[in-house]
Amino acid sequence: MLELLGALCVLLLLVASLWPASRFLGSGSRPAAALQLCPPLPSGISRLPPALPLREKEPPVAVRCVSDPSSSSSTAGAAATSSSSSSSSSASESDAPVALICKPSALANYLLKHCATFCSYAAAPRWSWRSSALLQTAFGACCWPSDCAVHFARDHLQMSDGGIVSLDWAAAGSAPHRRRRTSSNCSSPVLLIIPNSFGKITRNVLKLCEVGLIHGYQPVVFNRRSHNGTPLSTVKLQQFGDPADLREAVCYIRYRQPASRIYAVSESTGSGLLLSYLGECGSSSYVTAAACISPIFRCQSWFESGPSWLCHWALLLYQKFNLSRYKTALGEVVHTDTLFSSCSLRALEEALFCHSGLKGDSLSAGAGGGWDSYWERNEPLRDVDEVAVPVLCVCSQDDPVRGGAQATLPLELFENNPHFFLLLTSCGGHCGFSAPGEGAEPWGPRATLEFFRATTDFFAVEERAKLAARRRGLGSTAGGRAFRDRSVSTCKRLPACAHNIHAIYSWQRSYTR
């Protein structure tokens, strides 16, 4: 514990000493970086106002919404997306505080019209600490504020192989809850929150729970094996993109509350698990809509190149500190000397899942395949074409953990896949997005929940229009059928589970509390 506190003190001293120099040296290059991120569109592709109808074979268009401080919140979406042909308008659009990049669709137009929060993010002035990406990241990673009125009641769930994960149900109050009472008749939506892959509960997660409770959600945090105080009952850790445990946890939530919709939110490297789950399950994911806050998309290259050195060493030390509690148990399947002497995130991940231990066993079923084989099974975007629900990705251009936007953001995914929406801000760091005067509801959680509300309303409007057309005998139109049918099916129906949930689980056993 003393070593961790010492490392934290060194980290704060380095940030305090390097931030003024980095702001002074980088003050002149920031607009150029913003202009390079959004190159001019190819000839023949125009920017389409959201109010105009779309043709079926419309080329992909990057829709940019620019916040207008002088406009009211009700008209911010329409005023911010007006097209312009002058060069001065193109330059100001590149410097926009917020940009929504997606493929034109009926849902995209609906979001631009009804999600005023998307265009309400105000960039901090240069003299403010909020203009520093490192300080924004540190602010979002630490558990501030300390007076957060959210407490948790934990359910331990035993998986089919004997491992244990936990679900922390958030509740408002001044004292921790010893036991959570659930009712199968409860229809309040469930907000499933997946923290980062290192198991750190950040301020962003606490704020998501707090804002979710205010808006009538039931927030629940998914903790992987050995994370956040979850006991390690088997010598097996969850691989980076293996959604098996998450799939069983979602089945448990649906079994307990079949009348509730599920909305999933992930942050940072935890988005790899959520994207893997949505890709593998497709239209049977039980999820109505999903959001990823500061996700890491190209994870193999991220582990190989690593984030900035300051964030790299902070993540590496934190993961080693958590694994040190299980050094004796992991020694049967992992070379612990190699594990704890690793000097990079790649070396640590490779020692955990790609090498055999002293007894010839490994934490990974395909350890013999090596590093590339491991990422063939765990890359988050491996089944991205099978995702059948709307996914909002909130990212920042100055993210110090993810890296440069041009090399790390798959813009072609958002411009060609109608299920993915990229909300790109000019600043905000990694999972920070702190704005002046944000109050009790920060911009990131507020934009995420507004996306969920607008998506649900859109599906309800489309369903009513479809039913009205059937009553008139007109049938449903062909345009947009695949998107609406696949997405609504996850909201309205309960698809058959791939396994018999009653044969695997016995929810009354002592490990669930």
UniProtKB/TrEMBL annotation:
GO terms for cellular component: extracellular region. The keyword RNA-binding does not apply. Its main location: secreted. The keyword Kinase does not apply. Residues 64-92 are annotated as: Disordered. Keywords: Phosphoprotein, Secreted, Signal. Residues 67-92 have a biased composition (Low complexity). May regulate adipocyte lipolysis and liver lipid accumulation. Belongs to the AB hydrolase superfamily. AB hydrolase 4 family. Interacts with PDE3B; this interaction regulates PDE3B's stability and expression and, thereby, impacts the antilipolytic action of insulin. This is Protein ABHD15.
